[in-house]
Design a protein that fits this description.
Order of helices and strands: HEHHEEEEEEEH
CATH superfamily of the largest domain: Pleckstrin-homology domain (PH domain)/Phosphotyrosine-binding domain (PTB)
Shape: elongated
Largest sheet: 4 strands, antiparallel
Helix content: 40-55%
CATH architecture of the largest domain: Roll
Number of helices: 4
Structural class: alpha+beta
Radius of gyration: 19 Å
Number of domains: 2
Strand order of the largest sheet: 1-2-3-4
CATH class of the largest domain: Mainly Beta
Number of strands: 8
Distance between the termini: 28 Å
């Protein structure tokens, strides 16, 4: 919330952080660690191969930091998913058809969706009137869904 302009901050109703599951953290850091260790092991044998591994590690780290969600922000007129760097994904509240929460099971929502899922414990699916569904995993999914539904109903009046 620190980088929001005063006018955006005034329209911010709720903000939540994504919940990252342990398995996802292990996959992400394991990928980075594997290429880094491989790079160090290749230093004495193949310097070009080692540099390639270091480069892959850097590229992977940049991609991971840019595409995984940082925050979910609910404004008076839209839901904004803040990604790394300057990137965001915005869903206007007028375009939201339904909001559903799935718990402790493999995801049962739309097969075609834009996924910002960082765990499988509580997945919030946002079905849109136009476009693919969007799935997110706020740390307080039930509360986030209730707040989002309430805001959509108040906006519809």
């Amino acid at each position: 919330m620190s980088r929001l302009s005063p006018e955006l901050r005034a329209n911010l109703l709720y903000e939540d952080a994504p919940h990252y599951a342990l398995w996802l953290k292990l996959i992400l850091f394991g990928t980075l660690g594997l290429t880094l260790v491989l790079g160090f092991s290749l230093l004495a044998v193949d310097f070009t191969g080692a540099l390639t591994c270091f480069g892959v590690t850097i590229v992977d780290a940049v991609i991971f930091s840019l595409v995984f969600p940082r925050r979910y922000q609910l404004f008076t007129d839209r839901l904004r998913i803040v990604l790394g760097g300057p990137f965001t994904f915005t869903v206007p509240l007028d375009n939201i058809k339904t909001v559903r929460v799935f718990h402790n099971s493999p995801f049962k929502g739309s097969a075609l969706s834009i996924n910002f899922v960082t765990n499988t414990r509580s997945v919030l699916e946002i079905v849109r009137h136009k476009g693919w569904a969007v799935t997110i995993t706020p740390s307080r999914a039930e509360y986030f869904a209730e707040y989002l539904n309430r805001t959509i109903k108040e906006r519809a009046r």
